[in-house]
Amino acid sequence: MVDHVNELVLPGEILTKFNESEKTQKALLGPGLRQEDGDIIVSKPGILKFREPNVYWVDSFQKRYIPTKSDTVIGIVTAKAGDIFRVDIGGSDQATLSFLAFEGATKRNRPDVKVGDLVYAKLLVANKDMEPELVCIDSGGKNDGLGVIGREGGFMINTSINLVRKLLSAECELFKTLGKNLQFEVAVGVNGRIWVKSRSVSQTIAVVNAIEASEFMTNAQIKTMCKKLADTLAGF
Amino acid sequence: MMDSDEHREDRLRQMTCQLGQMLRPDGDTTLFMGDTCATVAVYGPGEVKMNKELLDKATVEVVYRSKSGLPGCAEKMIERLICNTYQTAILTQLHPRSSVSLTIQEIQNSGSFLACCINASCLALLDASVSMKFLVAAVSCIIDNDGNIVLDPNRKQEKTARSSLTFVFDNKDKKIVTINAKGDYRIEELNRCLALCKEASVAIFDFYRESMKKKLSKSMNTLKGDPES
């Protein structure tokens, strides 16, 4: 067992004593860890995490999104260029989105996408050497909830990537608890963008505030907050 | 502001910092080393200008802004020095065709300013979680006319110095990354300065750790408080 699990590690630190799998004598290294001349060196500041039997990674706090394959993200269409759209997904490069990558789209039947639209899309190609490519359909050609969002209103916020990861994890009960008292639609992109639409502007603001406030809350605290919020909205 | 810093010969001045105060940058810090203060904002890895694009690695851009006036030779020198330092420290090959840009704002120069800029940049990069090979820490010292070495000098001491030196070390092998020297000195003096500064750099690395711990304490606390995760 590495001594530093669940502790802060900083770039340049050399880690030793990894748990190896019994079969292959290997340890799996995730983001933030690198091998250099036989040493395992930390490359990102954060908390070292470990999962049985042999997986290690660094959980770091980051605002900037780095595209990863099969992530679902919220992008803003910035340009139309021939048969592709350019989409800003918050990474270092603009992503491309083919107009054929929508449900039911054909060469003749173009999807209705305008510059400035929000798209909820999946990353098909994400590679440090290549432009990221988005799609709004799954392998069966269905949209699966992806596509243009926010045409009928709604509100998008930018948050930290850690908050998004927390919201999407199975343990987080924010949306479940919020949904008991409020009706809303939400799209969470792993690139730190969250889109919310509710019945009224005040309700949307309430949901957005709840999301932003929940970043460093435990599930118990989230439940208390949601209760308070529901009471306030009901007028108590 | 006056140079109110105490004259200490063998120790660094008090350091304090604030991380993540600004909304727009991906990481930022305001670092005080005594009365000397600099603010650094980091953007990246982000989009790069066509003419600065490198095919196999990220471009490191440094912009230095002084309190007033147009940037001149001295400012460009600081930019170049910090740029070269961080080109070695940042894992640029992980993000080809992108840029990591550092903007340094002078707040108060009360001596050892270059060291403060470099250390503030490192903290800002930590705040932005940019991948790095190692951390760096800069320590300044001067040799006065009697041949005494003063660590982390203030403005007054710097003015009367025979020579002033700034060393940058990495935290992996404690090797030298950058040296910037002004004035004349003997080889044995250089070695003495080097040994002193290397010793002092440990305090800066400890300070980085404490600052990051403070920053991450919030999320670490939620981890501990939540029995389900």
Helix and strand topology:
The complex is a heterodimer of chains A (236) and B (229).
Chain A: E1 8-9, E2 14-15, E3 28-29, E4 33-36, E5 39-42, E6 46-51, E7 55-59, E8 72-81, E9 84-88, E10 95-98, E11 118-127, E12 130-135, E13 147-149, E14 155-158, H1 161-168, H2 174-181, E15 184-188, E16 193-198, H3 201-213, H4 219-234
Parallel strand pairs in A: 3-7, 10-12
Antiparallel strand pairs in A: 1-6, 2-5, 4-5, 6-7, 8-9, 8-11, 9-10, 11-12, 11-13, 14-16, 15-16
Helix pairs in contact in A: 2-4
Chain B: E1 15-19, E2 27-33, E3 36-46, E4 59-65, H1 73-89, E5 99-108, H2 113-127, E6 136-143, E7 149-151, H3 155-159, E8 163-170, E9 176-183, H4 187-225
Write a short abstract of this structure.
With 236 residues, chain A is of the alpha+beta class. Helices cover 19% and strands 33% of the residues of chain A. Chain A has helices at 161-168, 174-181, 201-213, 219-234; strands at 8-9, 14-15, 28-29, 33-36, 39-42, 46-51, 55-59, 72-81, 84-88, 95-98, 118-127, 130-135, 147-149, 155-158, 184-188, 193-198.
Features:
heterodimer; A: 236 residues; alpha+beta; OB fold (Dihydrolipoamide Acetyltransferase, E2P); Ribosomal Protein S8, Chain: A, domain 1; five-stranded mixed β-barrel; four-stranded mixed beta sheet; 4 helices; 16 strands; 19% helix; B: 229 residues; Ribosomal Protein S5, domain 2; five-stranded mixed beta sheet; four-stranded antiparallel beta sheet; 9 strands; disordered N terminus; ExoRNase_PH_dom2 (chain B); rRNA processing (chain B); nucleus (chain B)
Structural write-up:
- Chain A: Belongs to the RRP40 family.
- Chain A: Keywords: Cytoplasm, Exosome, Nucleus, RNA-binding, rRNA processing.
- Chain A: It holds the Pfam family KH_6.
- The complex is a heterodimer of chains A (236) and B (229).
- Chain A is of the alpha+beta class and 236 residues long.
- Chain A has three domains: 8-59, RNA polymerase II/Efflux pump adaptor protein, barrel-sandwich hybrid domain (OB fold (Dihydrolipoamide Acetyltransferase, E2P)); 72-149, OB fold (Dihydrolipoamide Acetyltransferase, E2P) (Beta Barrel); 155-234, Ribosomal Protein S8, Chain: A, domain 1 (2-Layer Sandwich), CATH 3.30.1370.10.
- Helices cover 19% and strands 33% of the residues of chain A.
- Chain A contains four helices and 16 strands.
- Chain A has helices at 161-168, 174-181, 201-213, 219-234, and strands at residues 8-9, 14-15, 28-29, 33-36, 39-42, 46-51, 55-59, 72-81, 84-88, 95-98, 118-127, 130-135, 147-149, 155-158, 184-188, 193-198.
- Chain A has a five-stranded mixed barrel with strand order 8-9-10-12-11. In chain A, strands 1-6-7-3 form a four-stranded mixed sheet, with no helix packed on it. In chain A, strands 2-5-4 form a three-stranded antiparallel sheet, with no helix packed on it.
- The longest helix of chain A is centred in the C-terminal third of the chain and has 16 residues, at 219-234.
- The radius of gyration of chain A is 21 Å and the shape is flat.
- The termini of chain A are far apart.
- Chain B has a single domain (2-214), classed as GHMP Kinase, N-terminal domain (Ribosomal Protein S5, domain 2).
- A five-stranded mixed sheet of chain B has the order 1-2-3-5-4, with helices on one face. In chain B, strands 7-6-8-9 form a four-stranded antiparallel sheet, with helices on both faces.
- Chain B contains four helices and nine strands.
- In chain B, α1 (73-89) crosses α2 and α2 packs parallel to α4.
- Chain B is an alpha+beta fold.
- Chain B is globular and about 50 Å long.
- Chain A binds chain B through residues 6, 8, 10-14, 32, 34, 41, 43-47, 60-64, 66, 92-94, 128-129, 162, 169, 171, 216-220, and chain B through 26-27, 44-48, 91, 94-99, 126, 128-129, 131-135, 170-172, 208-209, 212-213, 215-216, 218-223, 225-226, 228-229.
